Amino acid sequence: MSTPRVALITGGARRIGAAIASHLHQQGWNLIIHCRQSVTEAEALAEHLNAQRDNSVCTVRADLAKMPELKALAETACSSWGRLDALINNASSFYPTALASASEHQWDDLFASNLKAPFFLSQKLSQALQQTEGCIINIADIHAERPLKNHSIYCMAKAGNVMLTKTLARELAPEVRVNGIAPGAIAWPEDDAALSDKAQQSILEKTALQRSGEPADIARTVAFLLTEAPYITGQIIAVDGGRSLQQ
């Protein structure tokens, strides 16, 4: 029996990350699910998936802003099953940062999860991925190209994430493919970044399909890029229901 393929999913405990984890696990992948604060959710998801297939999922807590923890996460990803086939940089901080009140802490936090961690995890895991001819998938955002008012730091970080995808695709070719996915209205922001019903409706009215998507839409696109797209690299796939068509 062949060894299952292995994926590291950052921010894999909830929302889009959990959907990606569940979908890949159903397709036979072993998983390292990373979390920072959602430890309870990560452990519950791992327990649920391990009940379906024993010893197929493990969890790792790490603060992606801290280099020693990034290094430890990378080491765990490589050692858990002795191989790594995919790095999915999904973890992302998101909240408004109006110019007048934006702080250095917000800059560091938003750039850490959206750009710094994807870069340095890719660096530390590139050799393992080259050995398996694996893939890196970065979860970008349609706002990397279409700026969102009062979210300048986040948009800049995601724009860097898009360029990271393209530069790594050149640098790691031909062994490793690197692509990005830019979600639209998939999972509405939470907590301080939450949108009113009116704001959500306004977004949907500007979306060609006139409805929100689901985390499963991103999960299926991840699976496609990993297993069904051997000649695609350096691309950003918009999964946005046509939102980016807005004039």
Task: Sum this structure up briefly.
The chain is an alpha/beta fold. The protein has helices at residues 15-26, 39-52, 67-79, 104-132, 152-172, 197-205, 215-227, and strands at residues 6-9, 30-35, 57-61, 86-89, 135-139, 177-183, 236-239.
Key phrases:
247 residues; alpha/beta; Rossmann fold; seven-stranded parallel sheet; 7 helices; 14% strand; globular
**Unreliably modeled segments:** none
Main sheet strand line-up = 3-2-1-4-5-6-7
| Number of helices, counting only DSSP H or I runs of 4 residues or more | 7
Provide the CATH topology.
Rossmann fold
Question: What order do the helices and strands follow?
Answer: EHEHEHEHEHEHHE
| Category by helix and strand content | alpha/beta
Instruction: Give me the CATH architecture, please.
Output: 3-Layer(aba) Sandwich
**Main CATH class:** Alpha Beta
Net shape: globular
Quaternary structure type:
single chain
Give a quick account of the main beta sheet: strands, pairing sense, barrel closure: 7 strands, parallel
Q: What is the arithmetic mean of pLDDT?
A: 93
Walk me through this protein's architecture.
It is built from seven helices and seven strands. The protein has 247 residues and is α/β, with parallel strands linked by helices. The protein has one domain (6-237): Rossmann fold, CATH 3.40.50. Strands 3-2-1-4-5-6-7 form a seven-stranded parallel β-sheet, with helices on both faces. Strand 4, helix 4 and strand 5 form a beta-alpha-beta unit. Helix 3 (67-79) packs parallel to helix 4. The longest helix is centred in the middle third of the chain and has 29 residues, at 104-132. The radius of gyration is 17 Å and the shape is globular.
